[in-house]
Design a protein that fits this description.
446 residues, alpha/beta, 3-methyladenine DNA Glycosylase II, Chain A, domain 3, TIM Barrel, Rossmann fold, eight-stranded parallel β-sheet, three-stranded mixed β-sheet, 16 helices, 17 strands, 16% strand, globular
Length: 446
């Protein structure tokens, strides 16, 4: 049962050390009670208090770590039904499926192609994280060899899919260094799979024929001491799958049902006959509320929009996506190249930089911190004023990179030109176009 802020406060050290990021222990307790802080932020909480508080302060949906290395990720840890209430925390890991009887050459080709699907966006490297190995025919050697090859020759982490305990044990032994997800414990094999997960300290997926059928299975596993669970209600029809995801999230968040307080795993690959339809279903699961989603394959036209959707959904809606303030060199500029300035709103940066890059004109793009606002909004809010922008141009170091003294400002901020001229005596302030699409024409004319 969740504790109130006052109940939590009584268990804290009451030092008001401020190391947690807030001025008092009472404020920290209130944040902890409302899910706005983590218990680990307090460096002085006693072991006894930590034990009492850990369960009460744990997210209603348990965060489950998946994999090792550069593509390690997690699922779960969510605290709200709707993104606008706070934010979603754990971007849905995306997996592709391979059969255990795949040939070595085909597997090598797939891994090479899949590894190439990495996209730079807003300073993030967007890429899928998982490969699911599906047992075909019960051949434990083939299953283990496929899992071992993926673990040793790629960055991908693994989901091991079999209902045979012997096959699963061979797969775990081949790749347990990668901390694979075991899929799946069912009513028929729960004891063997539970022991395998516990002995190897691995996350375990649980599969049933319905949401209600999951509850006795997760209860039994948690009583065995296995906490890192992922759940699959077994639905493979689109409407039912959507309903199950909502029911599970609501049961965990609104009803406090700890038996369903785990991330889910979904299988668009088993719900459609082609990758296009799989992509649509996966997009639905990323939005509502799949913890992990498994496709039959990765293709560029499928994985890129899914990664982009995931990026947009799993960002704090109260904090705009931004890029770092500074000087960005585009198309290898030199001392004679034009200089443009705009705000650090990520969408603004990518549109403007894309137009500059497409023009093939070497240029410097100055990004001014405007708290993530677009040009017009930042100007209206006083975050992109002439004196501030002028001071930024003066101090950013661009004068050491170019021989000229001309800077191009966005057309929507034309009103700041006069104040910039006062802040930058001797500089020419050129008002650029309002729309980024007209930047190439301007640059070529210069």
């Amino acid at each position: 049962m969740a504790l109130t802020g006052i109940q939590i406060f009584k268990l804290l050290p009451k030092t008001n050390c401020k190391e947690c990021g807030v001025p008092t222990c009472l404020a920290f307790a209130m944040n902890l009670a409302s899910g706005k802080a983590e218990l680990d932020a307090c460096p002085y909480v006693s072991d006894e208090a930590r034990e009492q508080l850990s369960e009460a302060s744990a997210p209603p949906i348990r965060p489950v770590a998946l994999g090792k290395g550069v593509r390690k990720t997690k699922a779960g840890g969510e605290t709200v039904m709707y993104r606008h209430e706070k934010t979603f925390f754990s971007p849905t890991p995306i997996a592709a499926l391979v059969d255990s009887d795949i040939s070595a050459s085909d597997l090598e080709g797939k891994l090479k192609a899949w590894n190439a699907f990495q996209f730079e966006r807003v300073g993030f490297n967007l890429r899928p994280e998982l490969v699911a190995v599906k047992d075909v025919g019960g051949d434990k050697d083939a299953f283990a060899n496929t899992a071992k090859t993926i673990a040793e020759t790629s960055e991908f982490n693994l989901i091991l899919m079999s209902e045979d305990a012997g096959v699963m044990a061979a797969g775990v032994e081949a790749c347990k260094v990668k901390k694979p997800l075991i899929y799946a414990a069912t009513e028929g094999n729960i004891d063997d799979f539970g022991a395998l997960a516990k002995d190897n300290d691995l996350p375990l997926a649980v599969k049933a024929d319905s949401v209600e059928g999951l509850i006795p299975l997760t209860d039994k596993l948690t009583q065995m001491g296995i906490k890192d669970l992922v759940i699959d209600p077994g639905s493979r029809e689109i409407k039912q799958s959507f309903e199950d995801q909502v029911v599970i999230r609501r049961a965990a968040l609104k009803s406090g049902n700890r038996s369903l307080g785990f991330p889910t795993i979904t299988f668009p690959c088993e719900m459609a006959s082609n990758i296009d339809m799989e992509t649509l279903i996966a997009a639905m699961h990323i939005a509502k509320y799949g913890g992990i989603t498994v496709l039959s394959d990765f293709t560029g036209e499928s994985i890129f929009p899914l990664l982009l959707e995931r990026l947009n959904i799993f960002t704090d809606p109260q904090r705009p996506m931004t890029v770092d303030e500074g000087i960005y060199e585009i198309n290898n500029p030199d001392e004679n190249s034009p200089v443009l300035v705009t705000t650090n709103f990520a969408l603004t940066y990518f549109i403007v930089s894309g137009e500059i890059e497409g023009s093939r004109v070497p240029a410097y793009l100055l990004i001014k911190d405007a708290e993530g606002l677009s040009v017009m909004t930042a100007w209206a809010a006083g975050k992109f004023s002439g004196d501030d922008v002028g001071m930024f141009v003066k101090k950013c170091g661009i004068a050491d990179k170019v021989k000229h003294t001309e800077v191009i400002i966005p057309g929507y901020a034309a009103a700041i030109a006069g104040d910039m001229e006062e802040e930058l005596p001797g500089w020419t302030i050129t008002v650029g176009p309002r729309e980024a699409a007209h930047i190439p024409k301007l640059l070529k004319s210069l």
